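Task: sequence in, structure out. Protein: TIL domain-containing protein.
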Amino acid sequence: MSTTMSTINTFSILLLIATASLATVCPDNEFVPDCNPIEPTCEDPLPHPLKGCPTTGACHCLPNFYRHNGTCVSADECGNFVDGFNAILLDAIDSCKANEKWYACGRQELTCLSIRFRFHPIMMWCLRPGCYCADGLVRDEKLGCISVNDCPKTT
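Result:
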């Protein structure tokens, strides 16, 4: 019995080590986003939106870093490489407020007002990365991201 448990424990540890080694390790100033939109570069800090958002598991530059010659550099560094570089500042990953989530592929949010007027945009394009209401929530101007049931009632 103890030999069987020992074999199971050894197998479990080996499986855990193998799984951990499969995780993508990114270089400095990079991370693996929830999807992979077109990455900003020093030459093109605001790339065109992408239809849909593929998930590849590849490393991308952190918000407010730009790809240049294969590495992610700060806006200040881009200014050294590209004349007239104009940074596009994005929400930092850890800057989201309550009930918000950072999405690499920005989304068209529903709002209490759009729900009231039955306007439901169809999400086809990957918008600017940043903080958006978490799934299942809508944005209210004053209250932030809330359940649709908590939207203020009109009189």
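Helices lie at 2-22, 75-81, 112-116.
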